[in-house]
Task: inverse folding
């Protein structure tokens, strides 16, 4: 057996309590790389697409990457995969922190969890392997409380992935939260609801010294040394202020969504809610995920709300853009408090803040019946209303019942005009980077396997030269508002980015100018394979097409590869992206040709055969 993996997974049926160990061929690791890649292969092979996501027999696939847990920069990720209850298509929620590295020491490369326990339970992995344990006393508790109790029970080396009340209530925008107060989130696609539907409160692992063999430890150390200085230098902004430090720059580029994506500039507001401003007011300390030299995590003191005075994970860029600019809220105290509340209750802050902004626009137009709001006044920028609506969403109370389903399903309830205000693709709320500012992102959002996900391509990093295209054999200079060469940029970066989710790496490595050749060397040193950049990028193309194949089975085609009307037809009017609209039809035509897909967006037979799919 090569290094990097155990060659087996564990299947647990919560209905019966039975466990089964299943072998995984080495060839599957070489082609699909672990993580969400291997999960997708198993999902497709077993025909899991036919099962409804919250059904008892629905699978939750939890896999680490083949690099996860080794002393490799940012090798800290795991994937929670399945069929999304929010979108009905392929779902993967990727998360870092320390839990994935602990999970890798549990003796398996992945879990497949099916069934539904007859009472609340959690899974615990210690010296006796995985056990199903009673979680009745934890059910109803917030994430931090549940994690604290499990660590107290099982020891300080225990790391926990847990859901909060939002997951228990099966809110479709519920997240799986990692590491308690040092919160990292498997946030997107509603996988917290999948855990809740199984009466599964948490997966706790006490870290051991067990790891799959490592082929060339000395060679890996040398390869690591080559990239560390550049990573630290190029990612220094993330080290100093985290992703939140980018808020003013993003606003200046016309990339920051404002007032539910309707306004073009917000410079003074962006300065007030930036990571720099928050550091001056609330900062406590820096922290890092496992094996990460960047340390983008920040702990902050919560300044108001029900948990005032406690210390918690500080808000990321996406959370600030969502609960700040997109809600026209320029009070950073409410952003810190809303972020903390989402983490405690187990809500994805991207989808959560998106539905709050959506609700504010509905309120403005009189589309929410008064009896569903009570005394809640959803005026733009109302921090108290934001906090209360987050709570209502988590517990599915009042208007929160509909908003907990995400903007697309909520719009079905609030009427035809509401659909104009729902900024989503394939049912997933947009991450907060504007495809009118960097038009390559229009392709990324439209064709992403899980919906409107910026992380599936991160092409704006190349358009603004944070990760020059020449690093990938592309050009360095792009017209951010034009259409030329954007299809090639999108395809190339998607094929690269999909590998990070499979290998267990953080995508901020590209801010440190880590290129495919670097990662291919890490894989070779860990596994012992004769493995190079060419084979790795072929695997990336294979994985992207595999997930498209899964989605085609689930009904996805060209009709779904689109953006909401607001982003195709309404320009920002002011700011750096004023007047820019993405020419999506032209770019998709070129993109499908490069992908080897039909005009309907379906992979051609010869494409699937070439990729051995």
Result:
């Amino acid at each position: 057996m090569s290094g990097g993996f155990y060659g087996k997974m564990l299947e647990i049926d919560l209905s019966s309590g039975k466990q089964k160990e299943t072998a995984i061929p080495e060839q599957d690791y070489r082609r699909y790389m672990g993580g969400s890649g291997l999960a997708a292969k198993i999902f497709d092979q077993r025909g899991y697409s036919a099962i409804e996501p919250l059904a008892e027999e629905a699978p939750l696939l939890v896999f680490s990457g083949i690099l996860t847990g080794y002393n490799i920069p940012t090798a800290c990720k795991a994937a929670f995969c399945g069929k999304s209850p929010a979108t009905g298509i392929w779902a993967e929620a990727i998360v870092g922190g320390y839990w994935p590295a602990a999970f890798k020491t549990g003796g398996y490369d992945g879990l497949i969890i099916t069934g539904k326990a007859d009472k609340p339970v959690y899974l615990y992995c210690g010296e006796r392997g995985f056990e199903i344990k009673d979680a009745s006393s934890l059910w109803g508790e917030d994430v931090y409380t549940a994690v604290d109790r499990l660590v107290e029970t099982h020891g300080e080396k225990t790391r926990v992935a847990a859901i909060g009340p939002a997951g228990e209530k099966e809110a479709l925008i519920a997240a799986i939260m990692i590491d308690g107060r040092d919160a990292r989130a498997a946030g997107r696609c509603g996988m917290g609801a999948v855990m809740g539907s199984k009466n599964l409160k948490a997966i706790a692992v006490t870290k051991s010294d067990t790891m799959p063999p490592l082929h060339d430890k000395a060679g890996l150390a040398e390869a690591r040394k080559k990239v560390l200085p550049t990573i630290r230098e190029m990612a220094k902004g993330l080290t100093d202020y985290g992703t939140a430090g980018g808020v003013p720059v993003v606003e200046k580029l016309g990339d920051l969504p404002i007032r539910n994506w309707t306004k073009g500039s917000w410079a003074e507001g962006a300065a007030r809610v930036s990571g720099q401003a928050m550091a001056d007011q609330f900062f406590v300390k820096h922290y890092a995920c496992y094996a990460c030299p960047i340390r983008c995590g920040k702990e902050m003191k919560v300044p108001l709300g029900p948990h005032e005075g406690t210390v918690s994970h500080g808000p990321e860029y996406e959370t600030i853009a969502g609960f700040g600019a997109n809600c026209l809220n320029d009070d950073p105290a409410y952003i810190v408090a809303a972020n903390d509340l989402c983490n405690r209750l187990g809500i994805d802050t991207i989808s959560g803040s998106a539905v709050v902004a959506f609700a504010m626009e509905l309120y403005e137009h009189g589309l929410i019946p008064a009896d569903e709001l009570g005394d809640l006044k959803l005026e733009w920028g109302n921090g108290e209303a934001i906090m209360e609506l987050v709570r209502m969403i988590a517990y599915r109370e009042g208007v929160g019942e509909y908003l907990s389903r995400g903007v697309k399903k909520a719009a079905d309830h609030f009427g035809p005009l509401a659909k104009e205000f729902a900024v989503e693709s394939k049912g997933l709320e947009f991450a907060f980077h504007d495809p009118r500012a960097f038009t390559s992102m229009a392709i990324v959002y439209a064709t992403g396997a899980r919906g409107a996900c910026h992380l599936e391509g991160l092409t704006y990093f190349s358009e603004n030269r944070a990760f020059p295209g020449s690093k990938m054999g592309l050009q360095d200079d792009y017209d951010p508002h034009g259409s030329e060469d954007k299809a090639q940029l999108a395809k190339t970066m998607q094929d690269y980015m999909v590998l990070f989710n499979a290998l267990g790496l953080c995508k901020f490595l590209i801010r440190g100018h880590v290129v495919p050749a670097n990662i291919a060397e890490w894989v070779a040193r860990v596994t012992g394979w004769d493995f190079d950049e060419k084979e790795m990028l072929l695997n990336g193309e294979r994985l992207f097409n595999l997930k498209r194949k899964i989605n085609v089975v689930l009904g996805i085609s060209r009709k779904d590869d689109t953006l909401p009307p607001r982003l195709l037809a309404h320009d920002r009017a002011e700011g750096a992206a004023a007047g820019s609209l993405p020419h999506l039809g032209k770019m998709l035509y070129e993109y499908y040709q490069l992908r080897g897909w039909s005009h309907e967006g379906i992979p051609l037979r010869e494409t699937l055969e070439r990729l051995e799919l």
Remarks:
- The chain has three domains: 8-206, 239-422, 432-610.
- The longest helix spans residues 533-553.
- The domain at 8-206 is CATH 3.60.9.10 (Aldehyde Ferredoxin Oxidoreductase;  A, domain 1).
- The chain is about 40% helix and 15% strand.
